[in-house]
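Trying the structure run again after the queue cleared.
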Amino acid sequence: MTIRLARVTDYELLKKIKPSIKDKTIEERLKKQEEGKVEFMILEDDDEPVSFVLLKWEGKKTHPEYPDMEDLYTREEYRGKGLATLLIKECEKRAKERGFSKIGLAVNPEKKSKAKAFYEKLGYKHAGGKPYVDALYNGTEDWVIDLEKEI
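Done. Tokens:
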């Protein structure tokens, strides 16, 4: 297993992981990575791209005081093998190395109840705020809650 930062040459690899990811999204993330605002990490298994995550150093609007993980995604055929856990642990390690004592993420507690249970198993707890609309996906509001963890 190898975890590395995404590069400009990785568009096709990233689409292999998540076919629905847009070129514009990749471009924006790579630009922010160049500016030092994010780390767009790819996990490879024997040079095969299988998972990625975006680690945002400036957090998000609801919690700008600590880093936030966004768009943790693993190819379906590789799920349940601990790969997402490896990426989360890597994000936690990098945040701790930068002096942060907390890290967070957002999850839709109803539509992504399995993901929420997974994060809770890793020690993430509800940050206490009310659900909010994180984004629109195909015209549907994505209502999420913030989870956080002491690291």
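The chain has one domain: 2-150. Worth checking whether this holds up in the mutant runs.
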